[in-house]
Design a protein that fits this description.
Elements: H1 19-26, H2 40-61, E1 75-79, H3 87-92, E2 96-101, H4 104-116, E3 122-125, E4 136-142, H5 151-160, E5 162-173, H6 177-189, H7 206-215, E6 218-220, E7 224-229, E8 233-237, E9 243-250
Length: 251
């Protein structure tokens, strides 16, 4: 269990998985890799997130921006990996990748897709605290913290997986009036996102996330928005109102 956050009552690692959330996303597993299916929005979002991550990697380690494998020799962990939409690109960037997800159905789909593509990715289902895999140079968690039962414990567990000179990247919806109207009431009612995916009260603001990261001994970079433009689609932006992405490292 490593140095996972300990509950003072049970003396066990704090649980972060909500069973109903795991069941919701597990039910989508078979459709996860279909760019026109229930995860279509993730397929549109993934290249934007990956572009940000690649830039962050190059800045953090001072690598060659032209390099095809900037993560060669490094270990990467994606928490809440779903069926591997981010794990596979990280593996192609050269990392030894581990993915962990709350839903066993997602891990099954991830393993099958990676095997079909000839990618060697270690996948695990269950609590992050139960993962016996050491520390990682890169830790990512995309659109996950809004679904966990204990955000503080979750951030501490992410921090405990990060090497001393490592890089963390998190993204999540912001808790604003616009995100409630567009992400919850709009996107779900229009069928762009499966019903029940978002719970607005669980969204976290950039200031709140930065406070949690600071409490875990992490220093954050400047949050960047992921916004929608009618002409350019989803893009990195100064507008944090809908969704944002941020880096962190040990303070």
């Amino acid at each position: 269990m490593g140095n996972a956050t300990i509950s003072p009552v049970t003396n066990m690692p704090a649980k972060t998985i909500r069973p109903q959330e795991a069941a919701h996303f597990g039910a989508l597993a078979a459709d996860w890799w279909d760019p026109k299916g229930s995860s279509a929005m993730l397929h549109r979002l993934n290249p934007v997130r990956l572009g940000f991550i690649r830039d962050a990697i190059d800045m953090h380690w001072g690598g060659d921006i032209r390099a095809r494998h900037p993560l060669a020799g490094k270990r990467a962990l994606d928490v809440g990996c779903g069926a591997g939409l981010l794990c596979e690109p990280l593996a192609r960037l050269g990392a030894a990748v581990t993915g962990v997800d709350a839903a066993a159905e997602n891990i099954g789909a991830a393993r099958a897709h990676a095997a079909a593509g000839g990618l060697d990715i270690a996948y695990h289902a269950g609590e992050l605290a139960a993962l016996d895999a050491g520390r990682f140079d890169l830790v990512t968690s995309m659109e996950v913290i809004e679904h966990v039962a204990d955000k503080g414990a979750f951030v501490h567990q992410l921090q405990e997986r990060l090497t001393g000179g490592g890089l963390m990247v998190l993204s999540t919806p912001n808790r604003t009036t616009r995100s409630k109207l567009l992400l919850v009431e709009g996107a779900e009612r229009m069928g762009m996102v499966p019903r029940g995916t978002h719970h607005w009260d669980d969204f976290i603001t950039p200031d709140e996330l930065c406070e949690l990261l600071s409490a875990a001994g992490l220093k954050t970079g400047e949050p960047r928005g992921i916004a929608f433009s009618p002409l350019r689609g989803l893009e990195i932006s100064d507008d944090l109102a809908l969704n944002y992405i941020v880096t962190a490292r040990r303070a």
